[in-house]
Specification:
The structure is a single chain. By secondary structure, the chain is mainly alpha-helical. The chain has one domain: Non-ribosomal Peptide Synthetase Peptidyl Carrier Protein, Chain A, CATH 1.10.1200. Helices cover 52% and strands 0% of the residues. The protein has helices at residues 9-21, 40-53, 60-65, 69-78. The longest helix has 14 residues, at 40-53. It is globular and about 30 Å long.
């Protein structure tokens, strides 16, 4: 089993967010804009990277609803890409 499959979806998303925003760690419920001071381009980068990581198309409407790592994981679960 590839190593990436052993990491939870939440941890994978949090790692992407931390990498894009250049922070050490990200709390699951930390808001991209309010808590992490992300700008709109950084959010787009997060959405694109998560889409690649999970082999998933995320529509603009879906992306607009994603405001934190935990809400991203909820979307992944709804699309059958996370347990």
């Amino acid at each position: 089993m590839p190593e990436v499959e052993n990491i939870s979806a939440l941890d994978r998303v949090r790692n992407i967010v931390a990498e894009v925003l250049e922070v050490e760690s990200v709390e699951a419920d930390a808001g991209f804009y309010d808590d992490l001071a992300a700008d709109s381009l950084e959010k787009v980068e997060i959405i694109v990277r998560v889409g690649r990581e999970f082999d998933l198309e995320i529509s603009p409407d879906e992306a607009a609803e994603v405001t934190s790592s935990s809400s991203m994981v909820a979307l992944l679960r709804a699309k059958g890409k996370a347990a």
